[in-house]
Amino acid sequence: MSGWNEQSIPDQHGRTAVVTGANSGIGYVTARELARKGARVVLACRSEARGTEAAARLTGEAPGAQVEFGHLDLGDLSSVREFARRLPYDRLDLLVNNAGVMALPYGTTVDGFETQFGVNHLGHFALTGLLLPVLLDTPGARVVTVSSSTHALANIDIDDLNSERRYRRWSAYARSKTANLLFTHELARRLAAHGSDVVAAAAHPGYAATNLQAAGPRMAGRRLAERFMAVGNRFFAQSAEAGALPTLYAATAPDVRPDSFTGPSLAGWRGTPAPSWRAPWTRNDRAGELLWTASERLTGVLYEALKV
Predict the structure, then answer these.
(1) For residues 251 and 270, what is the distance between their CA atoms, to the nearest angstrom?
(2) What is the rounded average pLDDT of the residues 14-39?
């Protein structure tokens, strides 16, 4: 992986990709670089205004790019179902589960789930399951889910997935990122058991400057915390371009293995893509099975093709 950068991305002509949260930050860079290499990219975003603006900006930066906006609100399962139903393509080579929220004040999604768990995990679990038939029918397809090194702060609590007993914003975020890794682990295990060549992998950006850090403090009216995050982004974080490299590597590099976790090479903080440390509980088969069963029950999305 040494020296791997956006120029290392293999040719993507003939491939179709869906990138969630692609209107800004790491998602936007991921979509742009895939499109520059020839992929047809669907920018799956909650805001139509920001999504269509991002598509226009992307085509300006990458003339001739095949990009389009698709409305997707991961906090609303009816929107997830509608997005999957309306996707017009009979092949899907790459699904990048990138969108997320971080350290928000307590809230719930349209369907009543704690927001961070609902958006970061359940929305992507449902989306992947609904798109699974076309993924399985596409040779060499991949599902890349973006987690975080902060997953190490907390394991999931299978008896309190929605943090109803006690809510701490950073613990809830860490649990949602642990859920992303457990989902990847269990998805990879089930795909292998069914002889599928679809690769499920995970990535994280390290500390990258995006809008994500300031959203929580802004929503809570915590101006000092918002300013602190802005200072951190300016002086300590790497760029969104650099932060997107682990995702792009997991999405396109030929040697990516199922259930791998790619992050920045320098202490998981910054640098070129490299294998990343992950907490041992994110490879726990029993926890993966329990989370999978609970996620199917909560979302109503059943992975019939991967039943064990």
Answers:
(1) 19
(2) 98
173 is catalytic: yes
Helix (H) or strand (E) holding 132: helix 124-136
Q: Which is nearest to 239 in space by CA: 79, 48, 28?
A: 28
Share of the chain above pLDDT 70, in %: 89
DSSP 248-270: HHHHH-TTPPTT-EEEEEETTTE
Cβ(247)–Cβ(205) below 8 Å: yes
What's 237's DSSP letter?
P
Is 232 within 8 Å of 174 (Cβ atoms)?
no
- DSSP at 39: -
Half-sphere exposure of 67 (CA within 13 A, CB side): 32
* Candidates 106, 167, 173, 207; catalytic one: 173
Residue ranges with strand state E in the chain: 16-20, 40-45, 66-71, 94-97, 142-146, 199-203, 261-266, 270-275
* Contacts of residue 199, Cβ cutoff 8 Å, sequence gap at least 6: 140, 141, 142, 143, 188, 191, 256, 257, 258
CB 96 within 8 A of CB 30: yes
Host H or E run for residue 44: strand 40-45
> Could you read off the pLDDT of 250-284 as tens digits, one per residue?
999 999 999 999 999 886 667 899 999 999 999 99
Separation CA 47–CA 55 (nearest Å): 12
71 pLDDT higher than 90:
yes
Structure tokens at 194: 């069914």
- 197 vs 156: CA distance, rounded Å: 29
Token pair 């199917």 is found at 296
pLDDT in tens, 192-242: 999 999 999 999 998 865 555 444 444 444 454 434 444 334 435 588 898
Number of neighbouring beta carbons within 10 Å of residue 86: 10
